[in-house]
Amino acid sequence: MSTDTQQLTGQSILAGINTPGNGAEVRGFNPATNQGLDPAYSLIDASQLELATAAAEDAFASFRSLDPETHARFLESIAGNIEAVGTELVQRAMAETGLPEARLVGERGRTCNQLRIFAQVVRQGDHHGVRIDPALPERAPMPRVDIRQRKIPVGPVAVFGASNFPLAFSTAGGDTASALAAGCPVVFKAHNAHPGTSEIVGRAITAAISDANLNPGIFSLVYGPGASIGQALVSDPRIKAVGFTGSRGGGTALMATAAARPEPIPVYAEMSSINPVIFFAGALSDDAAGHAKAYLGSVVGSSGQLCTAPGLVFVPTGEEGDTFAAALRTEAATTAGQTMLTQGIYNSWVQGVQDLGSQPGVELLAQGNKGETENAPAPSIFSTGVAQLLGNPVLHEEIFGAASLVIRYTDAADLATALSKLEGQLTATLQLNDSDHEAVAAVLPILERKAGRILVNGWPTGVEVGHAMVHGGPFPATSDTRTTSVGTLAIERFLRPVAYQNIPDSLLPAPLQQSNPWKLTRRIDGTLKNAGEQA
Amino acid sequence: MSTDTQQLTGQSILAGINTPGNGAEVRGFNPATNQGLDPAYSLIDASQLELATAAAEDAFASFRSLDPETHARFLESIAGNIEAVGTELVQRAMAETGLPEARLVGERGRTCNQLRIFAQVVRQGDHHGVRIDPALPERAPMPRVDIRQRKIPVGPVAVFGASNFPLAFSTAGGDTASALAAGCPVVFKAHNAHPGTSEIVGRAITAAISDANLNPGIFSLVYGPGASIGQALVSDPRIKAVGFTGSRGGGTALMATAAARPEPIPVYAEMSSINPVIFFAGALSDDAAGHAKAYLGSVVGSSGQLCTAPGLVFVPTGEEGDTFAAALRTEAATTAGQTMLTQGIYNSWVQGVQDLGSQPGVELLAQGNKGETENAPAPSIFSTGVAQLLGNPVLHEEIFGAASLVIRYTDAADLATALSKLEGQLTATLQLNDSDHEAVAAVLPILERKAGRILVNGWPTGVEVGHAMVHGGPFPATSDTRTTSVGTLAIERFLRPVAYQNIPDSLLPAPLQQSNPWKLTRRIDGTLKNAGEQA
Questions:
Q1: Per residue in B428-473, pLDDT tens?
Q2: B184 is a catalytic site residue
Q3: Which of A20, A141, B169, B334 has its CA 20 to 30 A from that of A253?
Q4: CATH class of A11-271+484-492
Q5: Which residue in chain A has the smallest CA separation from B436?
Q6: Does the distance separating the beta carbons of B154 and A468 come in below 8 Å?
Q7: Which residues of B298-317 are buried (b: 16+ CB within 10 A; e: fewer)?
Q8: Which stretches does DSSP call E strand in A136-240?
Q9: Domain with CATH 3.40.309.10 in chain B
């Protein structure tokens, strides 16, 4: 894909065709300067959306029948096309989001890595989940016929781009990559905060489809009025699952719409988390100042606009905790705020910090400086005790941006009580040294029930894309605690099992045929066997 | 467990304690004689239900920490206790349901087999879903820390007994067995149509808990006023998932309640399916009369009260189809109806058959004779064409009981159109011979999207409990198409993944420890490896 095709059109891409919208216009907006960006993007209406969903349904039959190699190369080709765009993509994303270049270069790498790891998953084929219970014609009192199971893709998927990851959770991000890997066409609703970034990536996907001679209905990129077109998309009977990353209000609205359909469908919404971090006494006695600096770095990075930012930090009362608090104040004095993604998000942050600071018993513990750009507020850290946390639901709410609340706890019982009252979380973090193991062991069972990921001596911001990652957790962290939106397990969200009983081999799909043409590991009579063991 | 403990008490079992209910009374009822059965069962109220859910929550921590061998033996002990009851269980179930002895003996075998196969699953441990991405300290630009994933049980589960399988889908049925295998305590709401059967099995579970010195909160059996106590149970914040088998109305009501909770939870409801059976011309030309007889047998067995009963049968127009229809009439003339489960179900059947028979273009094709017992209606088979099916939603509704609708189709296009308009189904069945393969291949992709199980040259009634079975399917067959309620995959319904990042080995749970003490097959860096390969 040559870069001279990157002149932005301001149009949706409906099954490969650039299409001006019938509705109003929006523009990208540079939050660092408060200036609008060209071009204007015209928004589609419900009848135009139908073109995308109908094309996705039409494309499903052929897309889900691809051989693994063609399918995997298609995903890799998207990654290659995104890289081929070069600096233009990063520059546009910087202008639209205010995020720094290094962060966006890293995010682009993660996005392409994500597509390539799903290509490996497609080639390997474990996600087909093949199970074979061979016939037992001699069994008494009743013979058993041959039964085989595989997982098939659910159908077209609606994906909503997140504001805070314009690449890795957006157009070709984790939801799109895992849905395409499962064999599901995607209708992608762009986030209006980074329309140009979305278009560039959307073209990379479209070019990959065209180069592989696949059905263009596999992917559409739509710009639309946020709430109404989103509701129309989730209501469309051809859509069979939804991926979303965003606010609790937005996610629960989509959940309600999906549940009210004549045919309810699953919604995978990653929403709200305050990501508790627990300091144990031993860890603080090792290096209170170092921990304070690391904490502040995790709060301020990406202007705090990360799903896994540490919003709630438990620090023991007593001398070590006081040293930590003092170091935090010192560190904050030389820390500047960074530009936030949009004016709307900035305004919400200001309101949230004001609300938190005015709660009874909550004090401002440390504050940084405003940044030099627009929409770059002073990072703010508050402090209170366990009693206040237990008694006040406001203290459990996520403030999206560089703000955090320190909870001083008196002893193990105090800590356990507080943790057991938290809502569901994406992450829970433990800062400890060897002397803390007994105390840690006491809270681990509580945290397993609260969080999707538990980590030790690190910071939750920074989500590795691998096979073991869980970016999920109980509500309201996500709408569906049975899965993850990052890592290869995410493909399971878009699959469902089908059993084939007594079907002649020539009529079976490839993954189930006796000759095992795709060389899959399959579960035979309950035991996993690789291709060589299935003689 | 000695049989002299089997004097029925008419009481709920709340965490091991027989407890009379504060509410009204119900009785088992013999549908073959229209006579009430002793004893009366007193119904609990909401405050008594709280005892069960609180005990389940209290028991969860220890139950989910059991070693595999203790856990597996507990499941096997339930099976042994059920068998030890002897004929008393089958006799009581016969009296309460009108089902014949052979069917209930078989169902008891299936129920115990189901518990034992889940014991094998627990011993093997693949359901822990362990994934390990080892640390890569030298990776550039960023090192990777060790990340490990396992699945843990979701928490206490509410299970609702089905009327039509008083053993296999009831007190110790598939939902209970898979939830207990996952490590989830169960609060079981008995179906009021077979309270005595439920109590006998409930005691078998309670005795197994006691014998193994487990926390009695692992299981409660409650009798309650159907709708209200069911809603209270699903609303209880300690309940984290729901298993249900029953009507579409009942299932969707629970789905709505679960979705409206402050913390929404998954509902696995198996509800409504008409299980299309498709005859191709070749199959009929082989043996139209034999097929007619087998069809009638599948319709009439268990008085048609099976989730997978063939409610919709596609037969080609033309001579072979006419021969089939004539044979059906002949066969029906010597076929008698069997007692239905309850008077209420009988009345619903009568109403459903009356509604179906009065639809435009629908004719009564064949009718059997009434049975000699009470509530044993004449099996009824209707006939119409594809145009009527497409235009009339009434023809898509399940009639629970011995009734079925034959659709005469003219050609492949006619058939494909009809199949593509069906709602989601538990099963789809193809009757074919070698000459039909081309026609079958054309409809298979349609059926994969409609059904959880596709079978050839058999009848869908009869669900094998194995590793490859899917008893599931798109809505309204079930509320959640991603899973099954029969077979070992059902355990996945009650699990969720948790990631452990950079956790010291001594703090890791056993399935994740480096020494792999449970000898699990684990996914290392994306590739499944058995215990011996994980050096």
A1: 999 999 999 999 999 999 999 999 999 999 999 989 999 999 999 9
A2: no
A3: A20
A4: alpha beta
A5: A507
A6: no
A7: bbbbbbbbbbbbbbbbbbbe
A8: 147-153, 157-160, 186-189, 219-222
A9: 276-456
